[in-house]
Write a structure and sequence with these properties.
It is a single chain. The protein has 161 residues and is an alpha+beta fold. It folds into 2 domains: 110 residues, Roll (Ubiquitin-like (UB roll)), CATH 3.10.20.90; 49 residues, no CATH class. Helices cover 35% and strands 21% of the residues. The strands form 2 sheets. The chain has a 3-stranded antiparallel sheet with strand order 1-2-3, with no helix packed on it. A 3-stranded antiparallel sheet has the order 5-4-6. α3 crosses α4. The protein is globular and about 55 Å long. The chain starts with 7 loop residues before the first strand and ends in a 5-residue tail after the last helix. This is FERM domain-containing protein. InterPro entries: FERM_domain, Ubiquitin-like_domsf, Unconventional_Myosin_ATPase.
Length: 161
Amino acid sequence: MIMLFQLKMVELSKEKGKVYFPDDTDEAFEVDSSTRAKDFCASIAHRLNLKSPEGFSLFVKIADKVISVPEGDFFFDFVRHLTDWIKKARPSRDGTTPHFTYQVFFMKKLWTNTVPGKDKNADTIFHFHQELPKLLREQCCEISSQQITLNLIVRTNGKEL
C-alpha cells in the first residue's frame, strides 16, 4: 500500500507531513520553510532514538524517480526545484499544468561507519530491512560482510547465535 506525503497546515510557517521508513512504518513530522535537510534528518533520528544521524538521508520519490536531498538544502526549496524540473521534463499534452505528489523516505545512505549491533533501533528500523534484499540476491561481496549481515538478521529477530 503506497501512501502519499500529505501536507497539512499546522501554523503559518510550519507544515506536517509523513516520512516513510524501510520497515514499512511512517511518522508525521513538522517542517517549516527554513528547515534544512540535515536538520530534518537530525530531528527524525532524535525522535527514533537513533544514536546518530550520521549516514542517514532524506529521499524524495516523485513520479518514477527517487532522489536524495542534499543535506545543506532547504527541504521545501529542494522539493519545489524537483517538481519544477519534473514538470519541464514531462510537459502535459493538453496544456494543463501536471500535478505531482511525492513521498519522503528516511533511509541509510552511507554505510562506511556502520557497525551492526551498535544501535539496536537503527538495526531494526533500517539496517535489517535495507540489507536483507541484497543478501537474498547474493550481492554481498565478501564472506565477512555476509557473516555480519546474517548476524544482524539473527539479532534482529531476537535470537542469539
